[in-house]
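Working notes for the structural subgroup meeting. M.R. asked for a predicted model of this chain before we commit to crystallization trials. I am recording the input and output together here so anyone reviewing the notebook later can reproduce the run.

Input as submitted:
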Amino acid sequence: MKLRLLFAGLLLSGSALAAPETPLKVGSLAEVPIASLHPTQATLGFRQIDYKVNRYKHDAKKLFDDFCESAGAKGIEKYNDASRISDFASFSCKTAPGSELKKVNTAVIAPDNQLYLTDGHHTFTSFAEVGGLQTKVYVRITDDFRHLPNMTAFWQTMQARKLTWLETPQGVITPQQLPQQLSRKQMINDEYRSLVWLTRDIGYRKPDSPPPFLEFYWGKWLATQLPLSKMDLTSQSGYAAAVESAAEKMVAAPAETLLAQTDSGPLTAEKAGQMSRVNQKALRKLVSATGKLTYAFAN
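Returned structure, recorded in token form:
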């Protein structure tokens, strides 16, 4: 079914998003341009970005809702066709940023005084594709590592704390090889990461307090179970079949299957949100007129 374009080139901003006056510290909220956030992973699931960007082009409310929710502001209150990211008076959220602090994506401060993103790479990359890298977003500071002597010590700490993902489909990289900005031009596509995101609520449910990089842990395990060379990932129907196969592998795994050793201990399939059976209703919804795969393949 052809998707109806509500309006093109939609950008966002909001009067509820006033800049914080407090200095950066652990627990504080920071309003920063996306360009200033350094990735702690080199890969993205490009199909997830496709979905978000195409959905935003066709569904203005979803764009504003996601933006406000990413700021911990509960969703959109008011917007119109003239709303723009560059104009902070052109829309408003339901509450002030940080009202739901746990929903704000996280970042840490490094010894170089830069912010390194530890959650929200897909969300902010999508916002950047809609509104540009100068789009201002909110992050919650979870750690201040400025006391460390240098960046080498910083990356050692990040790896020990499992706050960075240095694996790619082409192999493991060094921290120095991480991209400098959130951008599909600089980052690498990880198809397993896309598959895992699309199997959410079909083969697994995201836990209330998931470890960082949960989807990558599932994806790394799936890579040992499901060779993508046998899948058609170029069409909507082929991708839907791949999602179903991935979900079947997830639910069939023994509950005690070890996906990874995380900072909080062993991550088993059960702890990673494994479902007892494939949710066929949610699977069918993927390819409905407003389904995620329909938007992902809208181009």
